[in-house]
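user: can you give me the structure for this one chain? tokens are fine.
assistant: on it. calling the predictor now.
[tool input]
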Amino acid sequence: MRISHLSSEVSPFAKTGGLGDVAAALPKALAASGHEVDVWMPFHLDAARWFRKRAAWPDTLLSPFRVSILGAEHEVGLLRATLPGTTVAVTFVAHDPLFHRPTIYSPNERGQDDDLWRFCLFVRAAVEAMKRLGRRPQILHTHDWHPALAPMLGAWSSYRDPWFDDVASVLTIHNVGYQGVYGLDQFGVLGLPPETLTGGVVEHAGALNMLKGALVAADMITTVSPTYAWEITTPEGGAGLDGVLRMRAGRLTGILNGIDTHEWDPTHDRYLPAHYSRENLRGKRECRAELCRVAGFEPGDPSMIVGAVGRLVPQKGFDVLFEAAPELIRRGVRIVVLGSGEPALEGSMRLLEAHAPRGFRAFLGYDDRLSHLIQAGADAFVMPSRYEPCGLTQMYAMRYGTVPVVRKTGGLSDSVIGFTGQNAEWATGFHFEDPSPHALAAELLRAQNVFFHRDLWHRLVANGMRADFSWGRSAAAYELVYRRAREVRGLP
């Protein structure tokens, strides 16, 4: 099949989180299965910096052309490169006034959120470029709300371009909380027929809602884990769109994300001081000693080391971890955290470090080398997320022999098999239900008790390292979705 992915971010060129990782890894896996795949993204300033750092530049694909939005003409350029280590083409839509900004989702010079305008330009330019290149995909796979205009352009017969007649659309929801909500006065930016607004297709709760429009328009909808696919159809998990998702439940499926098993492999990880495997864990002990050195912990202390890496936001539950930390430290647990985000949570992290430097170490920001070292050097890895569509770091942890302790939600529930005391032959980690400091502390202390029973702990480690989280597994499930999307193309 010919498959084109549209995403606001793609690793390694420009990313803020898991969306960028998936938008790179899934196309690679599909290409490896024999499909003709390419990826489209805006040429963000981050992407330009990525190329400059390597003294390289993408090729010019087409002469600049103009795209009109609300009568305003925007000249765009097309650049092309490949995903590193592959032949998968990445086409960049270049327009400096809208995309060369300090961060991917930066406001304009007046401090206004103009992402609706930016990403509608991206979609229209990408579709026009596909036409000019003579490449019509059989599947147009869009990720989250940013390229949501693409399935909408092809969905409604009163406006649909005949070019879309043999193009089926798939929408993947990476996080239903991000919906692209704007005032109804912005509807004209979409260039859609008026009945899509008056009929309530793109309107929700008195506002323009891009994700809702894409949910109604897409031929198939996926999300990034089976449990999350159910959670978003409930009032508690649907962020206001649960009714729409229930209406389209017959087209909705959850596919657990995979991980890049080449980038994340303790047998040859370039960031680690020593390598290891499930059969020989000696190198993991060396990684643990190096993490202790970097964190300022006593290497000879046998106490359990718990790692955490992520964005410091309420969704990820770091406030729960920080509230539980004093009791955990008092009970001998050592904690190392790498992350950045909300100032209040960054402040809490720094305060904990100041009060307990031998039991808590904070690293502000993000660093690839340190992230890999924490995964390899920690004994356990904690993810107390209030909700988690999929999560990747718990999968990295298991691959690195680090036992995850996670809240039982979304992809964390689907990827980690909680230890009950009776299932040591297949358990891979620990679950807790209540997103509270008490519940988290209780489960981490239960894990610590198992940690000191070395044979049992090593069994959990081996089970996790044996789990298959490769993208090949996930790509096969997406192939079935693509076939289904072509079967139901244009049907209600």
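assistant: here you go. The chain has two domains: 2-258+472-487, 282-468. The chain has a mean pLDDT of 95.
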